[in-house]
Amino acid sequence: MGKPNNILLTRIDNRLIHGQIVGNWAGTVGANLIVVCDDLVANSEVEQSVMRMAASTLGFDSRFFTVQKTIDVIANASSNQKILLVCRTPETLRKLIEGGVDIKKVNIGNLHFAPGKEQIGNKAYVSEQEEKEVNFIKKNVDEIFVQDTPDFKREEY
Question: 20 to 30 A from 66, CA-CA: which of 51, 85, 91, 128?
Answer without folding.
Answer: 128
